[in-house]
Design brief:
Blueprint (H helix, E strand, L loop, with lengths): L24 H9 L2 E7 L6 H8 L3 H16 L7 H13 L4 H17 L2 E8 L1 H6 L4 H19 L2 E9 L4 H13 L5 E7 L11 H9 L3 E6 L5 H9 L5 E4 L7 H9 L4 E3 L1 H6 L11 H6 L4 E3 L4 H4 L3 H12 L3 H14 L4 H17 L2
Parallel strand pairs: 1-2, 2-3, 3-4, 4-5, 5-6, 6-7, 7-8
Helix pairs in contact: 2-3, 5-7, 16-17
Length: 365
C-alpha cells in the first residue's frame, strides 16, 4: 500500500485534574462549535464513571470494585505516577469488560459523548491484543461494537472507524494474531493496525515484517512512538515500520535529524497532552512541546487518548491547549484541519469535513 503524503497546513468533564485561567467566552464558544475529528482514542480508556456504574448494575462482583476504582482516581486527581502504573490501571479497566454486550454498551456511550463534543469522525482504537490476552472472542466483540457504532452513527451522525492495536511487549507472534483479525474485518470498517504498550520491552524492529504484511493487506499503519523512550523509537517507527502517523512523539525534539525526517515526510503527530501529564511523563500540561512542534513546521493533531482515565475529553484538550499556549483561532482551525487531512478517509470525505470546518469557523469568527 502506498503511504500517503499529507500537505503541510500553512465542557469540561468530571475529574479534571487542573484548573487554568478561564478562556474568553467567545473562544470557548468558537471551539465548542467547531466540527471535530479525533484520531487517537482508546475505547477501553473512554469509559466514564457513569458508564462504569451502568456496567456494574448487572455484576455484583464489580460494584465494589467500581467504587474503589473511582475513589482512587479522584484521590489521585487522575494521575498515575508512572507509565507502568497506568498500564496496570488500563489492564484492570479492560478486565471489567467481560462480554460483547459490555463492549457494545461502552461503544454506544462513547459515541454519545463524542456527539456532545461535535465530533463528526473518530478513529477508535480497539485493544484487540488485550482481548486475546483475556482469551475472549475478537470476532464476537467486534460484531458487538460494530453494530453499536452503526446504530449510533445513524442516530447521532458520528462516523467511527476502527484501529486494531497489538500489545508490543507481547511480541511479534501476538501482533501477527491481531493483524489477522484486523485484516479479516477490514471490509467492515477496520482502517488501520498499530502497536501500543511498553516501547522499551517491544521495540519497533520486532514488528517490521508484521507491518509490511499489514500494508500488503491494504491496512493503514500507525504506531505509538517516542512516548516513554527517546526519538530513536520514532525513527524506527518511521523507517522500519513506515508508520503513517505517530502516537504522542513526545521525545521528538531531542533529535533535530528525526524532526527533519518527520517534517519532510509530513507524518502527523497524534498529540495527547493530558495523557502525558497523567502518566507522569510531564509535570504540567504547559510543559508539552506542542507549540514547539508547531514552530518546527510539524503536522500536529490534538487528541484525548484515554479520556475517562485522564479526566479529559477532546473538547477539554482544545480548551486547555488554547489557554496554555495562547493559540489563536487560526491555529486551532489548523490543528482541526490537520486531523481531517491525517484521517484514513477518502479525499472526498476529507474535503467535505474540511468545508464543514471552515464554514463553521467563518461563521464563528
Amino acid at each position: 500500500m502506498k503511504v500517503r503524503k499529507l500537505r503541510t497546513p500553512n465542557r469540561t468533564t468530571e475529574g479534571l485534574q487542573e484548573r487554568l485561567p478561564d478562556t474568553p467566552p467567545s473562544l470557548d464558544t468558537f471551539i465548542t462549535r467547531l466540527p471535530k475529528v479525533e484520531l487517537h482514542l482508546h475505547l477501553e480508556g473512554s469509559i466514564r464513571p457513569e458508564t462504569l456504574r451502568e456496567l456494574a448494575e448487572t455484576k455484583s462482583w464489580l460494584r465494589q470494585r467500581v467504587g474503589d476504582w473511582l475513589s482512587e482516581r479522584e484521590r489521585d486527581a487522575y494521575r498515575y505516577g508512572s507509565f507502568q502504573n497506568f498500564l496496570a490501571a488500563f489492564a484492570l479497566m479492560a478486565l471489567m469488560l467481560e462480554t460483547p454486550e459490555d463492549y457494545a454498551l461502552v461503544t454506544t456511550r462513547l459515541i454519545e459523548w463524542l456527539a456532545e463534543q461535535k465530533v463528526k469522525y473518530a478513529e477508535v482504537t480497539l485493544s484487540a491484543g488485550v482481548i486475546l490476552w483475556k482469551k475472549q472472542s475478537v470476532a464476537a466483540v467486534f460484531e458487538a461494537i460494530s453494530s453499536a457504532a452503526d446504530e449510533a452513527e445513524h442516530r447521532l451522525g458520528v462516523r467511527v472507524r476502527w484501529i486494531f492495536d497489538a500489545v508490543r511487549q507481547f511480541g511479534a507472534g501476538h501482533a501477527r494474531q491481531v493483524l489477522e483479525w484486523a485484516s479479516r474485518f477490514r471490509p467492515r470498517g477496520v482502517v488501520a493496525f498499530g502497536i501500543g504498550g511498553d516501547e522499551a520491552r517491544g521495540p519497533a524492529a520486532l514488528f517490521a515484517d508484521v507491518y509490511r504484511e499489514a500494508r500488503d493487506q491494504g491496512l493503514h499503519v500507525t504506531a505509538h512512538a517516542g512516548e516513554t523512550v527517546g526519538p530513536e523509537s520514532i525513527l524506527s517507527a518511521v523507517e522500519l515500520l513506515q508508520a503513517e502517523r505517530i502516537g504522542h512523539g513526545l521525545s521528538l525534539l531531542r533529535d533535530p535529524e528525526v524532526v527533519a525526517l518527520v517534517r519532510e515526510r509530513r507524518i502527523p503527530l497524534e498529540v495527547c497532552p493530558s495523557s502525558n501529564v497523567a502518566t507522569g511523563l510531564l509535570a504540567r500540561f504547559e510543559d508539552h512541546p506542542l507549540p514547539k512542534f508547531l514552530e518546527s513546521g510539524l503536522t500536529v493533531t490534538l487528541n484525548s487518548d484515554d479520556p475517562a482515565m485522564f479526566g479529559t475529553s477532546l473538547e477539554d484538550e482544545m480548551f486547555k491547549a488554547a489557554r496554555s499556549f495562547a493559540l489563536s483561532r487560526s491555529q486551532i482551525v489548523e490543528i482541526c484541519e490537520n486531523s481531517i487531512r491525517a484521517a484514513f478517509l477518502s479525499e472526498d470525505d476529507q474535503a467535505r469535513l474540511s468545508r464543514e470546518l471552515h464554514a463553521e469557523a467563518g461563521a464563528g469568527a
